[in-house]
């Protein structure tokens, strides 16, 4: 009897061991990729940020400078001013872009969630721009919006057909309008996530509001929005992170952030210090870690307000109880 139990236990442990080994094998590529492509570069950049890295005559030397690179960000009249200006421009773009993207994608999701002929086709067409590489998207938008002398189609249309004076969409403050429009054009993924979230909205509660005489706005405020709040919070976090990391669009439109460094975003500045200007890789690493701390602080602030975005079913429960009492009174 004991031998039978022992054999049974060994088989069970053997099965569990095999399952664990298979699981680790499947996870190994992701773990290895994280260690080599994420963790190691982060630790290396942290070490670089405390060094002055000098390359001369093909040789690279590392000179330990402690917190000097971080002090330069706060006090240096050149590096510090550039960092603060780039960070302020980046945060301005990120905040405005998050608001526009969330509102626009929510409106599109509500429209595309309705039942009408050709809905699936329209969903596919709307999602298509988000799968195009951002470099290709930026080049197409630049070709469309550049001035008439360079063959810009939009300015040609404004001048020839509408008799409107051409607008400099790229080399003027209007470039922010261009960046925001391009962001809205490529945010199909966020809309798809919100459409999926709308499938979780309880239909019985919507019908209850309709029976009580509520309109579409009442349905959205009392049922739809409380249900999708967690998804909106997640999308807001992701959109904020990707907006702060903007790089490709700025480089495609204007390599140096012109005009007047309006689009000299923080990632563009870090790249310039690391790979364009001489002997500033240590400074660039320190700037990257400062940006990491800024993103971490913003994320913590948003998570502190996470309770506002918790799913709330209390309204629907209260309505259900109210209707149940009415029906009981009629009986």
TrEMBL record:
<feature type="transmembrane region" description="Helical">
    <location>
        <begin position="231"/>
        <end position="248"/>
    </location>
</feature>
<feature type="transmembrane region" description="Helical">
    <location>
        <begin position="21"/>
        <end position="43"/>
    </location>
</feature>
<dbReference type="InterPro" id="IPR051393">
    <property type="entry name" value="ABC_transporter_permease"/>
</dbReference>
<feature type="transmembrane region" description="Helical">
    <location>
        <begin position="124"/>
        <end position="144"/>
    </location>
</feature>
<dbReference type="GO" id="GO:0005886">
    <property type="term" value="C:plasma membrane"/>
</dbReference>
<comment type="similarity">
    <text>Belongs to the binding-protein-dependent transport system permease family.</text>
</comment>
<feature type="transmembrane region" description="Helical">
    <location>
        <begin position="288"/>
        <end position="309"/>
    </location>
</feature>
<dbReference type="Pfam" id="PF00528">
    <property type="entry name" value="BPD_transp_1"/>
</dbReference>
<feature type="transmembrane region" description="Helical">
    <location>
        <begin position="175"/>
        <end position="198"/>
    </location>
</feature>
<keyword id="KW-0472">Membrane</keyword>
<keyword id="KW-1003">Cell membrane</keyword>
<feature type="domain" description="ABC transmembrane type-1">
    <location>
        <begin position="87"/>
        <end position="302"/>
    </location>
</feature>
<keyword id="KW-0813">Transport</keyword>
<keyword id="KW-0812">Transmembrane</keyword>
<dbReference type="InterPro" id="IPR000515">
    <property type="entry name" value="MetI-like"/>
</dbReference>
<protein>
    <submittedName>
        <fullName>Sugar ABC transporter permease</fullName>
    </submittedName>
</protein>
<dbReference type="InterPro" id="IPR035906">
    <property type="entry name" value="MetI-like_sf"/>
</dbReference>
<dbReference type="GO" id="GO:0055085">
    <property type="term" value="P:transmembrane transport"/>
</dbReference>
<keyword id="KW-1133">Transmembrane helix</keyword>
<feature type="transmembrane region" description="Helical">
    <location>
        <begin position="91"/>
        <end position="112"/>
    </location>
</feature>
């Amino acid at each position: 009897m004991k031998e039978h139990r022992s054999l049974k236990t060994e088989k069970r442990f053997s099965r569990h061991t095999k399952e664990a080994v298979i699981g680790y094998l499947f996870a190994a590529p992701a773990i290895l990729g994280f260690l080599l492509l994420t963790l190691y570069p982060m630790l290396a950049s942290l070490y670089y940020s405390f060094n002055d890295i000098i390359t001369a005559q093909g040789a690279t030397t590392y000179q330990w400078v402690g917190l000097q690179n971080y002090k330069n960000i706060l006090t240096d009249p050149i590096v510090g001013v550039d960092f603060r200006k780039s960070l302020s421009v980046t945060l301005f773009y990120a905040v405005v872009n998050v608001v526009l993207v969330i509102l626009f994608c929510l409106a599109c999701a509500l429209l595309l969630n309705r039942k009408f002929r050709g809905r699936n086709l329209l969903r596919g067409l709307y999602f298509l721009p988000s799968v195009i590489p951002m470099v290709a998207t930026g080049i197409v938008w630049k070709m469309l919006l550049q001035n008439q002398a360079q063959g810009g189609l939009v300015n040609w249309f404004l001048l020839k057909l509408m008799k409107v004076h051409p607008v400099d969409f790229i080399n003027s403050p209007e470039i922010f309008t261009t960046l925001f429009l391009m962001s809205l054009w490529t945010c199909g993924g966020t809309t798809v996530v919100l459409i999926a979230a709308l499938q979780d909205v309880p239909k019985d509660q919507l019908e209850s509001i309709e029976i009580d005489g509520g309109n579409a706005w009442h349905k959205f405020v009392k049922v739809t929005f409380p249900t999708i709040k967690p998804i909106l919070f997640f999308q807001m976090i992701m959109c904020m992170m990707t907006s702060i990391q903007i790089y490709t669009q700025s480089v495609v439109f204007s390599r140096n952030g012109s005009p007047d460094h309006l689009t000299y975003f923080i990632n563009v500045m870090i790249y310039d210090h690391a790979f364009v200007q001489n002997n500033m890789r240590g400074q660039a690493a320190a700037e990257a870690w400062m940006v990491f701390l800024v993103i971490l602080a913003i994320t913590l602030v948003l998570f502190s307000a996470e309770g506002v975005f918790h799913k709330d079913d209390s309204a629907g429960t209260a309505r259900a109880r109210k209707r149940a009492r009415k029906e009981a009174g009629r009986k």
